[in-house]
Amino acid sequence: MQNNKLEIKIHDGPARLGHHGDIKTPSILPLESLNLCEDEPMPFDVPRGLAQWSVEKTLKNAANIEDKLGVIQGSKYVDLRVYCAQKLEKMGFNTLVLANADELMRRPRELADIIVHLRENLSPNTSLVFPFADASFIPVLCYMGVDFFSDAICEFYSYLNIIMTPSNSYSQEKYQIYNLDQVELAEYNKNTLDLVVREVQTNIENGTLRNLVEERSCSSPQNMSLVRILDKEHINYLKKYTPIH
User: How far apart are CA 146 and CA 138, in angstroms?
Assistant: First the structure.
């Protein structure tokens, strides 16, 4: 994947429909296409000093690097995430990947705070990549302003014998919806992600993404909490691109 700028065509709330080179966004990317700049990984819940060290090492590694994607480190500290992202943007990185995505899915308040503050402090033409997202989370993440997802979760879930539908994820041992082997399961999960992102694109085009977000918010407590936190604590951000009828 090239480090292009995003060309936005339509807004539906903070969600963006556009093109990134030849790719229509929002979109799913193959994991192998994410050519990441070397970063300094750090767990989410660590002391600030460790998170700051991770950010500085990541920025040092990113200096003078071209045609790769920058990684937004900073752990749970919103200001460090914004600082890291802004520095990467000034270095010429137009596509940025959020670190700790799997942990953020379990922490709706931190997820909302980080993504909203990133979008408010970065160029609208800078793309955000959420590399590990369950299908049911994709509508609300797009609603917040995320542009790309990877298919990494599909292979991972296939190892765990988990099948993804647009609204939920099920263990095949307990919910025998289909009898799929690991290879078939990975492919099925990729098709689910493809369906969901096409559904999101079409809803953005029709100005109805919020309806889809509310429908999918019932899929998990984390998803529902995320929507409620956005409405309560970030309502001005949501209204910024919402048309008044």
Answer: 9
Residue 142's pLDDT is: 98
Phi, psi at 147, each rounded to 5°: -110, -30
**94 pLDDT higher than 90:** yes
Inform me whether the pLDDT recorded for 61 exceeds 60: yes
Is residue 77 a contact partner of residue 103, using CB atoms and an 8 Å limit?
Answer: no
Amino acid at 88: L
Beta bridge partners of 23: 20
Find, among 128, 129, 131, 185, the residue nearest to 157 by Cα. 185
Q: Where are the domains of the chain?
A: 7-235
d(CA 114, CA 108): 10
- The conformational region for residue 207 under phi > 0 = left, psi -120 to 50 = alpha, else beta, is left
As a whole number of angstroms, the distance between CA 204 and CA 142 comes to 10
Nearest to 58 by CA among 97, 3, 105, 29: 97
β partners of residue 122: none
Residue 150 phi, psi dihedral angles, 5° rounding: -105, 165
CATH number assigned to the domain with residue range 7-235, chosen from the 4 options 3.20.20.105, 3.20.20.60, 3.40.50.300, 2.60.120.260: 3.20.20.105
**CA dist., res. 39 & res. 63, Å (int):** 11
Tokens of 244: 């008044």
